[in-house]
Amino acid sequence: MASFTSPTSTDGPPLPIANQKNAIPTPLDATHLTHTLTAHPRPVPSATAIASSPTTICTDHMILASWNHTTGWSAPALQPYAPLSLPPTASCLHYATTCFEGLKTYRGDDSRLRLFRLPRNCARLGRSAARVALPVPDPTALAALVRALLAVDAGRWLPADSASCSPYSGDGDRFLYVRPTLIGTQAQIGL
Fold it and tell me: Region annotation Disordered: residue ranges (predicted)?
């Protein structure tokens, strides 16, 4: 169980460059997270709207980090929710090089946020990534990024005030569904 507070909008420290001599890729590092907050927050839908279409509603932000063989992970960036751009030959479209993990975040009666087994979910995403030949993110860094996203969006989308409109499941529990996803975007197609 965890309690989160909203960070201020700030840029993190500069990202270290991978050791080119020994070709050591930079690991995923949540301490380098940069924040670009949306200038146009989405309206939080009513509980009725959410109940009729819960899988189509997203919060205001997402976190992206790219990876390549030479430099490893880029600095993660918390940014406004937006479509992704992929080349038509992206490996995720042709070879299913993708994996995800899903977890729910609940607001308790004491107003604290609760994530069920976040470390295990992050470790499982790493095992899935290895199976489909994707880079394995550090589970501790991934958990910190999930918490950072919730620190920014949970206050509005899962408010502590139980009388507010917020996401509900069919049984009345308020939650946010968080879905860390890895996708292969390298343009490659072949036989």
Answer: 1-22
